[in-house]
Amino acid sequence: MAMRKDLVYVMLGSALPAVSNFVAVVFALKYLDAAWLGRSYALLALFFVSIDVFNFGSARLYSVTKIRERFPSLLFLDTVSATGSALFFSIAAWIMSASGAIALPQILPMLVIAPVGYATSHFALGYLRLKGGNAAICAVSTVSALCRCSVVWLIATHPSWSLYLPDLLLLVEGSYGTMLLGAYLIVRTPEPAAPAGPAALRHLVSLGGKELISSWYSNAIFSGAKHLDVIIAAMLLGPAGAALYRGAKSVHNLAFNFGQALALVLHSRMLAWLRALRRHLSRMSLFGVAIAICALLTFGAFLAFKIRLFPTASLGSPSRQCLFLFLIFLGASLMFACRLISITVFSISKRTFVILSTMEVGVSLALLSCLCLIFGVVGAALSVVVSCGSVLLASLVVVQRSAHAIRVD
Predict the structure, then answer these.
(1) Which of 10-14, 150-154, 328-332, 373-377 is predicted with the least confidence, judged by mean pLDDT?
(2) Which residue blocks in 307-376 are alpha helix, DSSP H?
(3) Residue closest to 68 by CA, chosen among 6, 130, 2
(4) Are 218 and 57 in contact (CB under 8 A)?
(5) Which of 70, 48, 86 is nearest to 201 (CA)?
(6) Are 128 and 184 in contact (CB under 8 A)?
(7) What is the pLDDT of residues 107-128, one digit of tens each?
(8) Are 389 and 334 in contact (CB under 8 A)?
(9) 15: Cβ contacts below 8 Å, ≥ 6 apart
């Protein structure tokens, strides 16, 4: 029962930010200036890239027994992360603001306060997850989700505050980290003496150097790339185009988070289900299912066009607008399927999982850059479809080969 409750909290903690971001982005696109919104979201994307580049994965490292036994706390590693993230974010934001691609906060110290507040919570997150504090994480995620929506409501109802949109967006993320750190400080148990300062860092590298590098690589490459696309879109499409792309990305994030959460629940049965589907469904049946899904997505795109889910009028004809919306939903569906099957690929071969994940990152960013130049924001939506479709196809081949190898054995 306790495990089920923890699982529910983990799923809620993952789903709530995605849902709140979707709601906030939809309303922001309707009621706020698109160009200013695009520049503000580009700043927020740069913020998360800065966080990920210097996230050494103390949450993941704390789950390694030999590290946990030697280091009761990894806050010293978060201090390094916070320092690096704050310096990187401040310098990068200052340089990129000159191009007009991103906005700067009115209160410039927010460029330091926000990354420090967020980055000092990496270890706290891992500690709370390991010690049964998922309810606290869920509570913090809920508060942050409500704050994100409240920021849009505040700006929409008080236009004079619109200049402070970047400040408020950064404040919400910095507060999220501070709340997690506060929750850790409240629930932590007394800790035995442990190495501190530069000596602790050297000791950690000698004890778990491989884990440290792989954890950093995972955050810097995979997580960082999830936000780099918004910056690329802002530079290639302009602020208004980036804002519309951010709307599409909010749908993709919903699919990503729900797919990831569902995969955690179903991972023990997923491989058996895939094998059963392969045995009992013919190619014609699978083709029929694909046609039905495409018909459903087409209807969803038409409905989204009718209710003006996103401000797509700038794209031109209704058919082009519907195509853009269809590509958004198709990309989200493929991303959802990729997340569901990714944990199965991981269980088959960790090396293959890393290769496919790296391919997904590289292909998606390369396609985004190329297709944006050719087709604009429609090309940005198409890039997600092509990259996720390629990764899904490769993942299915891996699963099929694994099933064949088991039969041969």
Answers:
(1) 10-14
(2) 318-348, 350-375
(3) 130
(4) yes
(5) 70
(6) yes
(7) 999 999 999 999 999 999 888 8
(8) yes
(9) 257, 258, 261
Is it the case that residue 384 has pLDDT exceeding 80? yes
* pLDDT of 32 above 90: yes
Alpha carbons 182 and 177: distance in angstroms, whole number: 9
Place of tokens 């392969």: 278
Is the dihedral angle over the CA atoms 49, 138, 180, 219 positive or is it negative?
negative
Distance CA 381, CA 369 (A): 11
| DSSP secondary structure letters along 230-261 | HHHHHHHHHHHHHHHHHHHHHHHHHHHHHHHH
Count of C-beta atoms within a 10 Å radius of residue 104 = 18
* pLDDT value at residue 277: 62
* Residue 63 CB neighbour total at 10 angstroms: 15
Between 166 and 400, name the one with better pLDDT: 166
Number of residues that this document lists for the chain:
409
